[in-house]
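[Q] Does anyone have a clean structure-token version of this?
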Amino acid sequence: MELLSQSFTFTNDKELADFYLNNLTESSKTTIFSIYPQMTDPFYQNSAAVIAYLQSFVSQNVKIHALKAIRSLTMDGRE
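[A] Here you go.
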């Protein structure tokens, strides 16, 4: 989502936070809304808080493996 968000222009921090939240699966939204009720305005208006919270679930190993997979990807399937 981080790379995708760079393709758009957001007028304020709340729009960026909404972008991240709206691109979650329904079960992820249910989980985050149970932890941070939707009426908790400071959390939802601060994209840094939303992004940091979501990134806390991503293992560094997942990032490393994803980068390796992307770097070894070729168009015709050959190395």
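[Q] Thanks! Anything notable?
[A] The chain has one domain: 2-71.
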